[in-house]
Amino acid sequence: MEKVISMVHGSGGQATGELIHEVFAAEFDNETLDLMEDSAVVKGGSRIAITTDSFVVTPVEFKGGDIGRLCVCGTVNDLLMRGAEPKYLTCGAILEEGASVDQLKRVIHSMAETAREAGVQIVAGDTKVIEGSGGIYINTTGVGTVPKDRDISSGNAEAGDVILVSGTMGDHHAAILSERMNIETDIQSDNAPLGEMVGNLLAAGIRVHTLRDVTRGGLATVLKELAEAAGKQFVLEEEAVPVTPKVRDFCGMLGLDPIYMGNEGKLAAIVDREDAENALEIIRHSRYGKDAAVIGRVEDGEPGRLVMKTGIGGERVLGVLQGEGLPRIC
Ligand code: MG
User: Fold this and answer.
1) Same domain, 31 and 91
2) Is residue 276 part of a domain?
3) What's the gap in Å between 214 CA and the centre of ligand 1?
4) What's the Rg (C-alpha) of the chain?
């Protein structure tokens, strides 16, 4: 019979202890977590980056990933976007009664594997069980260190800078949407940790002014926010924005625009013009970056304006995503 989570797993007693040891500690073991203290004491640096994110994606497992991989990628990538070196994560799991223990084991295994890939340790955790219908939710807090003098920030774009993306737009969003709508496609989520890519850019001395992972709201929302933060005008070339034929067809069928659809393993980078070609090559040769492209530039122009030049010579002024979008993609 399939083992499922029941309220006793949240009691704090023996069943909770067994669940924690069998499912979580077995996968996340490291010398800090293994102490099982009330809080983890870790080595720090003088500048610490902290971020937190809750993951409520449905379905929990989807083409190309699952909530375990997703929560590590989302949190680690947010640290990386400030130039931080990700070090530690926490794992707060909220389990609904009826959740499959086998499914939980799979996503926690995936979380541990992705943490190893990203070079972070999971050093603290918590598990709660609530009434419900088998859902699995995970909150992760991430901690990283920021080297002295590193300054990568939303407002740092300068006129003349070049805007790049690390790959195709909309993949994660389209993968989740196809699962939810029961549409047969083989579109895979792009959920991926971007530490190797960012590390390669910085190690090569690329003058990276701004980084942002292209998540909820999509490329247009992210770049509009960055244009406003920098007080600059951003100009995009529509034909340069990479989208796979599969995602393009899927979006066409549903009347969606890939530039408003989220990814979970792509970044937008704004770099000094002189470094743009090198940056593109470095990203293309990094893991998860083969479809990188230069998509636009930063101008003095009208502060906060985001404009896209269309293939037929027109111009489209873009705002942030309006309305709800698809809920629970992350
Ligand atoms: Mg982000």
Assistant:
1) yes
2) yes
3) 7
4) 21
Q: What is the CATH number of the domain that holds 51?
A: 3.30.1330.10
Q: Two tokens at 225?
A: 């926010």
In angstroms, what is the span from residue 106 Cα to ligand 1's centroid?
26
* Full pLDDT tens readout for the chain, 330 residues: 789 999 999 888 888 999 999 999 999 989 999 888 888 888 877 899 999 999 999 999 999 999 999 999 999 999 999 999 999 999 999 999 999 999 999 999 999 999 999 999 999 999 999 999 999 999 999 999 999 999 999 999 999 999 999 999 999 999 999 999 999 999 999 999 999 999 999 999 999 999 999 999 999 999 999 999 999 999 999 999 999 999 999 999 999 999 999 999 999 999 999 999 999 999 999 999 999 999 999 999 999 999 999 988 999 999 999 887 777 899
Question: Ligand 1 centroid to 267 CA: how many Å?
Answer: 9
Domain boundary among 111, 145, 179: 145
Q: Which of 12, 24, 173, 4 is nearest to 103 (CA)?
A: 4
Same-domain pairing of 192 and 312 = yes
Going by C-alpha positions, the residue among 226, 231, 252 that lies closest to residue 302 is 231
In a domain, 155, yes or no: no
Q: 56, 47, 43, 138: which is closest to 90 by C-alpha? A: 138
Bridge pairing between strands 267-271 and 208-213: antiparallel
Say if residue 96 is in the same domain as residue 53.
yes
Question: 171: domain CATH number?
Answer: 3.90.650.10
CA of 165 to the centre of ligand 1 (A): 14
- Cα of 150 to ligand 1 centre, how many Å? 18
Q: How many angstroms is it from 190 CA to the middle of ligand 1?
A: 15
In Å, what is the CA distance from 102 to each residue of 5, 54, 110? 10, 22, 12
Number of domains in the chain: 2
Q: Is residue 93 part of a domain?
A: yes
The Å distance, Cα 97 to ligand 1 centre, comes to 31
The Å distance, Cα 104 to ligand 1 centre, comes to: 26
Whole domain around residue 45: which residue ranges? 7-145
